Automatic annotation (TrEMBL):
It comes from the Bacteria. SUPFAM superfamilies: Glyoxalase/Bleomycin resistance protein/Dihydroxybiphenyl dioxygenase (SSF54593). Pfam families: Glyoxalase (PF00903). This is VOC family protein. Residues 8-125 form the VOC domain. InterPro entries: Glyas_Bleomycin-R_OHBP_Dase, Glyas_Fos-R_dOase_dom, VOC_core. Signal peptide: none annotated.
Length: 139
């Protein structure tokens, strides 16, 4: 299937009472090596195994405003292709983002709400640039 679509999970984000302690626990007990905001699971894309992909696991402080307007304790980041075209498609269905597209070296991000009030993040990644940020392999 080609065209604008979700291609996988870019990250699992959730609220924690003490993110630093939680990250240390996961690192010590489950071997999840932490860098920056959490840990990255590195994998290779199925269609082209020469291309790396990443899924970020990241606890946020309970007081974070990043998940607003959702009142949920988690937010899923979806990897997408053709973010701008996907936004046009969503707009045609009456689904509007909650913010503007943020473009950074490692990709473009935008947020929207699902029908149950969950904030989700759409990420069109630039995996080559993301890999330069100090990601690790969890193998």
């Amino acid at each position: 299937m080609s065209g604008p679509r979700v291609t996988g999970l870019g990250g699992i984000f959730f609220k924690a009472k003490n993110p630093a302690v939680l990250k240390a626990w996961y690192e010590k007990n489950l071997g999840m090596r932490m860098v920056g905001s959490g840990t990255n699971f590195e994998w290779h894309q199925g269609i082209d195994s020469t291309k790396k992909g990443f899924t970020l696991w990241a606890p946020f402080k309970e007081t974070t405003k990043y998940f607003q307007p959702s009142e949920k304790q988690f937010m899923i980041n979806y990897r997408v292709e053709q973010l701008d075209a996907l936004l046009i498609k969503l707009k045609a269905s009456g689904i509007l983002p909650t913010d503007s597209v943020e473009r950074v070296s490692y990709g473009s991000f935008v947020h929207l709400m699902d029908p149950e009030g969950n904030k989700i993040e759409l990420w069109e990644p630039n995996d080559v640039e993301y890999a330069k940020m100090g990601t690790i392999t969890t193998k």
